[in-house]
Amino acid sequence: MEKHKFRPECIWNIDETGCFTVQTRRPQLAKKGEKRVGSIVSHEKGSTVTLCGAVNAIGNSIPPFLIFPRVNVQEHWTLAAPAGTLCNAHPKASGWMTSENFMNFLKHFYEHTKPSKDRPVLMILDNHASHCSEGAIRFCRENYITLLSFPRNATPGQISLWTISAIL
Fold first, then answer.
1. Mean pLDDT of 29-45
2. Which range marks the domain in which residue 140 is found?
3. The three-state (H, E, C) secondary structure of 125-166, written as one string
4. pLDDT in tens, 45-68
5. Beta-carbon count within 10 A of 132 CB
6. In this structure, what CATH number is given to the domain that contains residue 142?
7. Nearest in space to 87 (alpha carbons), one of 51, 129, 133, 125
C-alpha cells in the first residue's frame, strides 16, 4: 500500500445487489377480527436486476451498472436512471454478475475514474468468481487498478478491520 499511496478519492468499494422489478407484498395491520383489509398486490412474478455500484472513500460514486436477465438491452430501461448509467443484458445468468459482465463493468469504471500511473486506484470488492478472470486481472494491471478482495462470508466488522489494516 505504501508503494501506491492511494488518496481517499482513489479508494473505491464495489458491490452488487439484486433489485426486484416487481414489489413484494407488505404486511398489513388491522384490528383483531377485521374482515376486510385493503391491499393491492401484483401477481406478476417479476425478475431480478443486478445493480453494481462503486463508491469512493470520500462518498463520490460513478453511475450505476445494471444487468438485466434479457437477450437485448432496451433504450427505455435507462430513461429515468442517472446520467451515464450502463445496462447489460445477460439471458443465461438470470441477471447476475458474470466474468463477461464484470469486464464490461471494469471498462465502465475506468471511463468514470480515469486511473493513471500518477493516479492509480484501489478497487475493494468481494471474492466472487466473476471478479477473478484472467482478462479482468490483466485489464486492471494495464489500467492502474489495484484489486483488493475480501474472503467469502466475511462479516462487515471483519471487512472494516481488513480494509483499515490493508490501507494503513
1. 61
2. 8-14+47-167
3. ECCCHHHCCHHHHHHHHHCCEEEEECCCCCCHHHHHHHHHHH
4. 567 788 889 999 999 999 999 888
5. 13
6. 3.30.420
7. 51
